[in-house]
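U., I forgot to send this yesterday:
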Amino acid sequence: MRVAEYTRYGSPEVVGIVERPEPHAVAREIRVRVHAACVGAADGAARSGTPWFARLAFGLRAPRRSVLGSDFAGIVDEVGPDVTRFAVGDRVFGAMGAAVGAHAEVLVVAESGAIAPLPAAVSMTDAAAACDGALTALPFLRDGAHLRPGQRVLVIGASGSVGAAAVQLAKHLGAHVSAVCGPAHVDLVASLGADRVVDRSTEDALGGPATYDVVFDAVAASTFRRARRALRPGGTYLTTVPSFAILLQQLTSRLGRRRAVILFTGLRKDADKAPDLEQLAALLAAGVLRPPIEREVALEQVAEGYRLVDSGHKGGSVVLRLVPAGAEARA
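Result:
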């Protein structure tokens, strides 16, 4: 099988395609023929080794794991003994989390892992992209902000994979959503259902008179200090990007009337992720969730995928297609 492998930190070109023996499912494992996998921000940090604290997770001097990729969709083609949840031929999608390894043609996953059945109506590309964005946005809104119908939400970085999912999920949960993005993505974000789209090049969403119950900064474009003035009493500032400041503010803000929250959603237990995947599958099948796709690239173009992620200006997810969509349909 082919995998996208890297053995040292650096630019996108450090990732190359190599051949490896195909693994086999044992015990309570299943083997998945991967059709689509995402190149996400965490993959970019792991590949480059930046910021510096990324190496605490991925390896101080060199990468601990040479194949990246968490979010995937594919078809089960082998099951181990005692597997009862899945069968050969099942369409599935899921997230590997810190274990990574999804940038490969074949992937072995524990039956009890963060994996769920994929409805026939949902494409492999959309399924992988939902893991890339919505599997992060959902717990932030539900568990971090305790979002309720009628509340007002500001999403900063609304054109990225997490931000776009946050816009759609917040609307689904009954919130009024204002969404911030660059001028190139105003139409895209409007199509996601935002009540108001703010072009960051012409307006400062945090500097105006509007106030919000939740400010969800998906790209670390602001700070809790800046957002406080735009938060209503009892409001919550969410950010997906760790820093010493936000970790300290998460502790100290508990004593105040406005909270700062960061969640490490990728480190959640598989048992917590699996029900979320089943919920996302239902939302995808119903058309409630429509993950935007910046570009699909073939496995051998993985370096181009990383360049798109590194640019910081993508609209939605970058997806590796390991099996062409036409071949999937014929299968």
